[in-house]
Fold this protein.
Amino acid sequence: MEIETLKTPKNDPEYSGAPEEKSKSPYQLALRRFMKNKLAVLGVITMIIILFMSISAPLWTDHDPEQTNTAMIERPPSDEHILGTNSSGQDNWARLLYGSRISLAVGFSTMFVTLVIGILFGSLAGYYGGKVDSILMRFTDLVLALPFLVFALTLMAILNNVSIPLFILILSILSWPNLTRIIRGSFLSLREQEFVIGAKSIGASNSRIIFRHMIPNTIGPIVVNATLMIAVVIIAEAGLSFIGMGINPPTPTWGNMLNEALSVRILRQHWYTWIPPGVAIFITVLAINFIGDGLRDAFDPKSNQR
Amino acid sequence: MYKYIIRRLLIFIPMLFALSVIVFGLAKAAPGDPFSTMLDPTIDPEVYEDRRDELGLNDSIPVQYARWIGNAVQGDFGESIVYNSRPVMDLISARFWNTVYLGLVALFFTLIVAIPIGVYSARNPYSILDYFGTGFGFVGLAIPNFFFGLLAIYFLAIKLGWFPPQGTVSGSDVSGMKEFFDRIHHMILPGITLGLASTATYMRYMRSEVIDVLGSDYIRTAKAKGMTDRVVLYKHTLRNALIPIITLMGFEFGVLVGGAVITERIFNYPGLGTLFLDAVINRDYPIVMALTLIFGVFILVGNLLADIFYSVVDPRIRYD
C-alpha cells in the first residue's frame, strides 16, 4: 500500500475539501488503480515494446523473413544472422520480428471478431431474455462444449490450405461463447436496474439502451476478458502452427518457427532456432495476462483477493 | 436437487444429438469420399457408382446420418483410409489406455502439487512459498505447453539425461515390475507437460478458496470450540475448499483432450492424440470424425458430472 501523505488538493484528487476540483469519472478511477499495479504497468510497457518492435521490424533486420537460402542452412548465430538460420536457410531473427506481426494480428483480430459476436449475441440474449435467451444460450453451451483444439484441427483438415483471414474466422467461431456468456450475464442483472428502467420509461429505444446505457456499464468485464482472450488466441495459433496445422510456412509466425523443434536434431543442436520464439510467446502472453489481471482489479476493486 | 439433475440430463441428450449432427455435417463437408484415395482413378464410372450405392453414399442425408450414428453407438466407426482399411475402433482401442494413463499421471501431478501449495499459500499469505506459488501460477498459465514440453526434453532429457525424451517403454526386453517403472518413467515428462496449465489454475483456485473458507463464520466457530488446527484444516476447510476444484476438473476435460493432442505429439507418445493428429494430417476422415465425436462426448459427460456433483454437494446453488 502507498504511504498516506498529507491530503491536499494537489496530491489527492479525491480530496473532498476542494470543491473546485472536478470529481473523477469511473474510468479515471480505474485508470488510477491500474497505474498503481506494478505488474500491470510492466505488462503495458512490455507490450508497447513488443508492438513497437513488430511494427518497425524492417528497422532491425535487413533480411527477408521468407527468403530461403540453400547455401546458409542451419547456421549458428553470427554477425549477419544474429539468431542463425533455420532448416530452409531463412534468417531466424527476421522471422522472429516479422512473425510477431502475424501472431499478434491473429490474436487481436480474433479478439475483435469474438467481441463483435459476443456483444451482439450477449446483449440480445441478456436484454431480451426469454426465448431469444434460451435459444442463444443452448447454442452457446454447445459450442462451449466442443473441444477447441480438436475442432480447430478437424476444420483445418476439411478446409485445405487455410488463408490467414479464414484461420482467424475458425478461431473466432470456436472462441466466442465465453465472452457472450459474460456479457449476457451482466446484461441480465443490469436489465433490472433503475437507470435502465428509467431510460425505458422516458421512451429510449432498445438500441439506445443497449449501446448507451448497458454496454458502458459492462465495459469492465468486456475489456478484461477481451484482453485475456488475446493471450489465449496467441497460444492457440502458436499451438496449431507448431503442429503444422495452422498458418503455413513460408509465412513466419512464432508457432511455425517452433515447429522446427519437432526435429530432434534441431531441438538438440540448434536451440537458437526454437527457444527465442517460445520465449517471445511466453513473454507476450505473460504481459497480456498481467494487463488483464490489472484491468480486472482496476475495474472491480472488490475482486482483488490476492 | 433431483429436479435439477433430471433437467440437466434432459439437456444432455439434445446436446449429444447436436454434437453428432455437427460431426456428421463436418464429415459430409469433407472433400472427396472414401474412394478418392482407395480406388484406381481409371476405374469405370459405373462400377464406382455401384460401389457408392453399396456403401449407401447415394442415400439421402438423414438416412446416412441414421446409419452412421447407429453404427457409431455400437462402436463401429468404419474403416481407416490410411491404415490399410483397419477398423477405426481397433485403432482407437489399441491406444485408448495410453491416453487415459497419461491423463491420470497429469492429474496426479496436478493434484499433489496444486493442493498442498494452494493450501500452504492460503494459510501463510505473503510468505516466500506463497510468492513462489503465485509466480509459478503466472508462468504456468503463460508458457504454452508445447514450449514447456520442448524445454523439458531439451534440458531434462537431452542435457541431463534424467528422463527418456520420447516413447512409452525403453525396449521389448524389459518386463514385469521393471517394465512398469520404465513406463512410469516415460510418462513423467509428458504428464507434467500435460498437467502444467491445470496445476497453475487449480493452485490459484485452491488458494483463494481456502482463504475464503478460513474467513467464514463456521471456521471461527470451530476454532472457538477449541478444535485443533489440524481438524479445522482437514475436516472443515479442505472439504469445502475442494468442491470447486472437483467441479473444475469436470470442466477441464476439454483442456486435457486438447493438451493431449499436442503433448503426445511432442513426446511421440502413442495415444489418441497422436492418432488424431496423424489422421488430421493424412485426411483420414473416419478416424478424425470418430475421435472428434468421442472427445466431444467425453467433454459433455465431464461437464454433466461436474454440474451434477456441484448440485449434490452444494444444495444452496439454485438454477433457473
Observations:
- Residues 108 and 280 of chain B are 30 Å apart (CA to CA).
- The domain at 90-271+299-313 of chain B is CATH 1.10.3720.10 (MetI-like fold).
- Chain B is about 75% helix and 0% strand.
